[in-house]
Design a protein that fits this description.
227 residues, Histone deacetylase domain-containing protein, His_deacetylse_dom_sf, mainly alpha, 7 helices, His_deacetylse_dom, 4% strand, Ureohydrolase_dom_sf, 53% helix
Length: 227
């Protein structure tokens, strides 16, 4: 693991603490004790990197609980007693009612030659794998051509072309063009007042003509009666 850490140089470690390698496991065929299992956690802690411990396998429940309790203490750097405190599940940990478990008389079939061959093979595989980059990671720059922006422009152009066929686009553009001969709001208001005054004067003249016509009609009628 030292060589692995040197090659990859991680910023954090995720360690899965599977308990099926403990002695007495129902499915596993290994013979590790809690202290041997916990040495892995101690070793990974020695790199002084943030470490996240996860659970894993383990099919003898009482030993799984023992292992994770012990390794939580190792991660926190706390010494805990080998004597289990009384609890609702105390009888599950008999007959010794202790934290640590004793190894069985299973023979160790992992010879030094066998372990050395596995180690050499792993180191050779690591040599063929690209190592950690030698420069600081940097953010990837944006593409020179923004595909989203190009697509949006194409959609806008298609909508304008469809609108031009109906004549709406040119009309809407013409409405936004200001005519130099158009009056401003103040000038328009002044013109409206003048037109109103002129209109009022025309109305007054028309009323006078109508009244004069009525008077003439009365005079003619009066003359006819007298004769």
């Amino acid at each position: 693991m030292t060589r692995v850490m040197e090659i990859y140089r991680p910023n954090a470690v995720v360690l899965q603490c599977g308990a099926d390698s403990l002695t007495g496991d129902r499915l596993g065929c290994f013979n590790l004790t809690l202290k041997g299992h916990g040495r892995c956690v101690e070793f990974m802690k020695s790199f002084n990197l943030p470490i996240l411990l996860l659970g894993g396998g383990g099919y003898t429940i009482r030993n799984v609980a023992r292992a994770w309790t012990y390794e939580t203490a190792v991660a926190l750097g706390v010494e805990i007693s080998n004597e289990l405190p009384f609890n609702d599940y105390f009888e599950y940990y008999g007959p010794d009612f202790r934290l640590n478990i004793a190894p069985s008389n299973m023979p160790n079939q992992n010879s030094l030659e066998y372990l050395g061959a596995i180690k050499c093979k792993l180191l050779e595989n690591l040599r063929m794998i690209p190592h950690a980059p030698g420069v600081q990671m940097t953010s990837i720059p944006d593409d020179a051509l923004d595909l989203d922006e190009v697509e949006a422009e194409q959609m806008d152009a298609a909508e304008d072309a469809a609108t031009d066929k109906r004549g709406g686009s040119r009309m809407s553009k013409d409405k936004r063009i200001a005519n130099d001969q158009d009056l401003s709001e103040d000038e328009d208001a002044t013109c409206r007042e003048k037109r109103k005054d002129k209109s009022d004067g025309l109305h007054n003249d028309n009323d006078y003509d109508e009244q004069k016509s009525e008077i003439d009609k009365v005079k003619i009628y009066f003359i006819i009666i007298c004769f």
